[in-house]
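hiii so um. not sure if this is the right channel but i have a protein structure encoded as tokens and i wanna go backwards to a sequence. like what aa goes where. can anyone help
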């Protein structure tokens, strides 16, 4: 009976997706961005090793690869990262609205394809059956572009719309601010409510 007499409160997000796209959106984006930037650092270090230091490709393994060489040659790591990126982009998408959601969705679509390419590489590496008559696991676009350059390109074309989405998300217009329910811009919301 006392439950019926309590004043109604505003509904709090209940599920994990609601939490990550509501009160914890900013924190979730920061963790996700840290993972993305750490991966970028690996690709940029490998590119530096190849094109500036002129190391041979087998020795150019990025930062982690120098300490743990098996990581770079493991399709488990590459596929795992592609999957984490796909899950992160999908999971955090609901927190975006308006213009920023369109850019975030573009990153998600591109990452979905990037994930398919890594899935092809992963399946070939696990089965030992390589496609296209190649002696190693090969993705579709790897038939046209070298692997290092291709995956540097993939990460760039996923990262750029993500950055645009986050920039726009943190600078919402009035309609986006009204539609948003995340924790990324509390100061603007307070000004709008005043």
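sure thing!! here u go:
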């Amino acid at each position: 009976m006392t439950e019926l007499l309590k004043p109604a409160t505003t509904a709090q997000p209940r599920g994990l997706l609601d939490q990550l796209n509501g009160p914890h959106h900013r924190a979730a984006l920061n963790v996700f961005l840290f993972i993305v930037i750490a991966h970028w650092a690996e690709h940029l270090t490998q590119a530096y090793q190849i094109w500036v230091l002129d190391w041979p490709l087998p020795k150019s393994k990025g930062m982690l690869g120098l300490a743990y060489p098996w990581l770079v040659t493991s399709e488990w790591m590459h596929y795992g990262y592609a999957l984490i990126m796909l899950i992160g982009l999908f999971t955090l998408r609901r927190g975006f609205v308006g213009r920023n959601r369109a850019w975030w969705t573009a990153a998600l679509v591109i990452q979905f394809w990037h994930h398919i390419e890594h899935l092809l590489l992963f399946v070939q590496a696990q089965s030992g059956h390589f496609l296209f008559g190649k002696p190693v696991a090969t993705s579709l676009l790897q038939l046209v572009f070298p692997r290092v350059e291709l995956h540097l390109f993939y990460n760039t074309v996923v990262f750029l719309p993500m950055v645009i989405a986050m920039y726009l998300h943190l600078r919402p217009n009035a309609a986006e601010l009204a539609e948003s329910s995340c924790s990324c811009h509390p100061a603007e919301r307070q000004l709008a409510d005043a």
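oh and The chain has ten helices and no strands.
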